Amino acid sequence: xxxxxxxxxxxxxxxxxxxxxxxxxxxxxxxxxxxxxxxxxxxxxxxxxxxxxxxxxxxxxxxxxxxxxxxxxxxxxxxxxxxxxxxxxxxxxxxxxxxxxxxxxxxxxxxxxxxxxxxxxxxxxxxxxxxxxxxxxxxxxxxxxxxxxxxxxxxxxxxxxxxxxxxxxxxxxxxxxxxxxxxxxxxxxxxxxxxxxxxxxxxxxxxxxxxxxxxxxxxxxxxxxxxxxxxxxxxxxxxxxxxxxxxxxxxxxxxxxxxxxxxxxxxxxxxxxxxxxxxxxxxxxxxxxxxxxxxxxxxxxxxxxxxxxxxxxxxxxxxxxxxxxxxxxxxxxxxxxxxxxxxxxxxxxxxxxxxxxxxxxxxxxxxxxxxxxxxxxxxxxxxxxxxxxxxxxxxxxxxxxxxxxxxxxxxxxxxxxxxxxxxxxxxxxxxxxxxxxxxxxxxxxxxxxxxxxxxxxxxxxxxxxxxxxxxxxxxxxxxxxxxxxxxxxxxxxxxxxxxxxxxxxxxxxxxxxxxxxxxxxxxxxxxxxxxxxxxxxxxxxxxxxxxxxxxxxxxxxxxxxxxxxxxxxxxxxxxxxxxxxxxxxxxxxxxxxxxxxxxxxxxxxxxxxxxxxxxxxxxxxxxxxxxxxxxxxxxxxxxxxxxxxxxxxxxxxxxxxxxxxxxxxxxxxxxxxxxxxxxxxxxxxxxxxxxxxxxxxxxxxxxxxxxxxxxxxxxxxxxxxxxxxxxxxxxxxxxxxxxxxxxxxxxxxxxxxxxxxxx
Length: 759
Fold this sequence. Notes:
By secondary structure, the protein is of the alpha+beta class. The protein has 31 helices and 21 strands.
């Protein structure tokens, strides 16, 4: 039975109780603390001095929110108290409880951070500030505002994880009490929760919070589907009650026989997880058979594995459904043994086996540190302080590499869905990477320098392509070279936000450096045309520094380097900047050099070569060879300064270049080939061959004998008849080398004709 048929069958009964309050009203939340006295009972783990501080924070928040009400009509202070109560369940410290009580005072009531520091100290004020959205700033749209607010919150979280714990408690209470809001606002908040906050909770191991946020989001986004599946689950629960009790009795009896203490509890999948499985597998509700499971908590680690033997001796295990997350924990620190067994009635039942400490980490994640730091004297059971540590550190690295808030949020979202694979370094260290990760992701997970200089990879001792997807258990080795650099195409194959941000940062940095060097060349060339030399950029030269400051203020740039980058990218014209510089220099008494002007006017050819931007192949992204005409050394060339694209070099006979010249002639500058290019260049040729066996091999051999390389070959889609056209990109040194390649090909008996492709 599919979801549509299930809804048709169950919706009438499921919706009887929903008609009075509207279709999207959520189910009633569990009882929560609504008064400070009820909260104080939960805070018995704090000292008397800390409790006094919390009470003072409550009084401050109560006064700040006086006269403010929630959409439900309740006094607003009930919300901060409830949030503090959820934080108290995690046994967070006094500063976090105080921040929970005051978390909306800056945002809603105009309280300043300085005021909070004076009254409650820097720690609590920093937490409240980290929780405050940036609504007071002006952004071009709501998405930009949201992205910048997330950026602020996540960076505050990377510095102090209590920020996100309080924020998750705040979001959880808001999700529980959204019934009075308008439908569109409910759906927007629910979508944001499902996309951002629930994955963050999962990433930090807060599985109980994660499941509830998912469930509430699903209920608000798809109320009819949630109602239908809830009814179906309730009916299935009644039908399977007997078998659940029987399995539980059999398990307890088997463990008693082996004298292993065990706490057995039933575990039922959430409505959202069932819905997601139905969507992923295109299955009906009846086909999702592992709805029920059991969680077994035993005293010690060795007893986890003994318990596995007891279970496999009791029921038959389902092949391929055993997972050991104790030996290899999940990325968020989760540890358990998972096994699926076939019950006496033939249904599949999943068991999770763990210790008490593992259970605390599984449910509370990073919050287990506060739960256990006073109870666990040995420190051996729970090491929750390190949960999510690598991910939190990666947030700071991504932030340092990413200026744009939307890009930052995109990188973080990638890392929030880590359906993980577990791979090994050659030194047997385990790394968790998202499913679909490549050796490039692995390299950047090791260190950014390894990723930046990666050239090849070995997986399990065998060479593989850098785009190869890694599988759990792979041993990965990265081969680097000092001169290597990231390839822009890597952005299409990496899966981790860290790798993506590092690659983008490197490429932007290199582009800026190359554009700056090109801008220097172009401005120097434009100044020589005015008969002047480039003023020095030495900070010790006060007069030159003052001159450049005037130019920078006139151009609107922040620094001389930014001005050169803008010139190199075509955002500003070198000739206009040169005119302004010439005017300022002449005001200071400097006159154009007559010899230089004479050379520019009467020795055009030599002067052009002297003044032109020289192309030698080392320019990188700032100078591009136009793909329409593919110029090579020896061709007559011209340069077009595109707006924001850098310098694009065309042959002087290129039709595309001529059209650009007619439309935008002032953006053309002189360029010339270097006498000693540093690399080969690509150009396109067409080889017309007579069809026959081994012709392609003969053509390749002829090109190789002329000391050229084939970088791409296209034979088209049409079937070969008596003749065929081969379109080949060849890597050559210059026009003379190309002529040698063409002569060599013409000597081949199978070649009918050869010509260079021109636009």
